[in-house]
Each structure stands twice: as C-alpha cells, then as structure tokens.
Amino acid sequence: MSTTSTWIGIEELAEELGVPVRTIYAWRSKNKGPRGATFGKHVRFRRDDVDAWTESRLDDRASA
Q: What is the rounded distance in angstroms from the CA atom of residue 49 to the CA atom of residue 41?
C-alpha cells in the first residue's frame, strides 16, 4: 500500500454512496462500513479502504 493516501470526510463518503450522513455514523457504531480513522472530532476514510469495502459489497450473482 502506498505511504500517501487520499482521505475523504464523512459527508463526501455519504454523498458518494448516496446515503444520509447519519447512515455512515450508524454503520460506524455497528462496526460496518469502510474502515475509518478519527482525527480529533473528525472522521476520515482512506480512499483505498473505501474502494476495497465497496468492492467487497458487490453482488456476485450473475446478471439475468
């Protein structure tokens, strides 16, 4: 993994996934969603972790 990562905020993640910000907070409280880090009061997510998490959520079923 690269030593420099792009970090995104919770609002950006919510917008990207098309879910409310409160959903991201709910996922974090249930240990679901992508790995995140807290810097003071701010939650940030590494782009690589978000990409890996979204990839793992893909449905493996064949399209009809």
A: 20
